[in-house]
Amino acid sequence: MTRRLVATDYGSPAQVLSVIDADDPVADDGHVVVAVAAAGLNPFDVKRVRGVMSSDPSALPLAIGGEAAGTVAHAGSGTGLAVGDRVAVYPVSGAFAEQVVVDAAAVHPIPDGASTEAAAGLLLAGVTAYDTVATLDVGADDVVLVHGGSGAVGSVAVVLAAARGATVIATASSTNHDYLRGLGAIPVSYHGDLAAAVRDAAPDAVTAVIDTVGTDAAIDASLQAVSPDRIVSIAAWGRADDGIVLLNGSSEASRANRRAAVAPLLDALADGTITVDIVGTFSFDDAAQAFDALDGPHPRGKYLLTP
Predict the structure, then answer these.
(1) Are 307 and 97 in contact (CB under 8 A)?
(2) What number of other Cβ atoms are within 10 A of residue 98's Cβ?
(3) Domain encompassing residue 43
(4) Are 240 and 260 contacting, i.e. CB atoms less than 8 angstroms apart?
(5) pTM of the model as a whole
(6) Residues 58, 63, 65, CA angle at the centre, nearest 5°?
(7) What angle do CA 191, 239, 185 make, to 5 degrees?
(8) What is the pLDDT of residues 2-44, one digit of tens each?
(9) Residues 240 and 288 in one domain
């Protein structure tokens, strides 16, 4: 049997999360069973459990978890993988389990130099960040403003944009400014007159914006700097009428960007270009604590769940 963390209803994690026993998964041709060492917890997981995304009772018990890492337990024919291979798993549904079965296309070898734990928390945010940078086709001549530069998506976007030679300005609280400088960005506080602060910080005019926070202040300041088609947001869904580019991975171009992102992200993790700060690891039995921590004020970094 395999232990799985599920939500039996929608609401407070402490009340609805439950660990259940399920049959061991089986891999047929083209599929892989992965023994999960750790799985990344993301805001999307919390929103799903709380019923923010949907409260459809037919979806219960709700399988949760969108990224994981571990070792191959069984590989179906044609996968090119072997038992014991260290792998990251993304995309996946129901990653909060001792074992998961997934299409081989979602199973990615972890290169030497990258830890399994870091790989477990990289890809969901990482491919989103890669998509924003690729959609804007950021280059060395760009000055890129990243809203929420110290967050999981924003920090990777900063690194990727800087690696393309762009000048990067990133908003964050003052406690994260040194962190942003270490990533290669010019930090700006999001308090006060944000548009003026960006103008003062930018060595040249801003040419592109990546928004990961979705606030009106962020979008208003961005529209003062660039045309709407040069603003990519993963959060400002209420501002669609402004003509900004909204990304959620649903378009074919966005899906292609995210598929192309996986290997370079894992390589960047292995060589230290990208890091994943793990601020807490919780067992499935203590998962509600992790959900509550992520849903409130919390340190910069990633929470992991382990079977």
Answers:
(1) yes
(2) 23
(3) 2-122+276-306
(4) no
(5) 0.96
(6) 145
(7) 45
(8) 999 999 999 999 999 999 999 999 999 999 999 999 999 999 9
(9) no
